[in-house]
Design brief:
The chain has 68 residues and is mainly beta. It is 15% helix and 46% strand. The protein has a single domain (11-66), classed as SH3 type barrels (Roll), CATH 2.30.30. It has one helix spanning 15-24, and strands spanning 11-12, 27-32, 35-45, 49-52, 55-58, 63-66. The longest helix has 10 residues, at 15-24. The chain is globular and about 25 Å long. It starts with 10 loop residues before the first strand and ends with a strand.
């Protein structure tokens, strides 16, 4: 069984999750190597990046979760 290291948080794993979070104006957390590197609402989405608070995060290098 898959063990979620972000226990209690819903991980954004598909493009539809990113677009839903952006439309709902949900706060998301961005992690890289288990370190929190960003938080806020998604402002823009490309195939490779997510823009949160004027900063771009590489989707391939980060894990994004809904904030509680």
């Amino acid at each position: 069984m898959f063990k979620n290291r972000y226990l209690g948080f819903k991980v954004l794993t598909a493009p539809v999750h990113f677009y839903t979070a952006a439309l709902d104006q949900s706060t998301v957390l961005a992690f890289q190597d288990n370190e929190l590197i960003g938080t806020g609402r998604i402002e823009e989405i490309t195939e490779e990046t997510v823009k949160i608070r004027e900063e771009r995060f590489m989707i391939a290098n980060c894990t994004f979760v809904y904030a509680k």
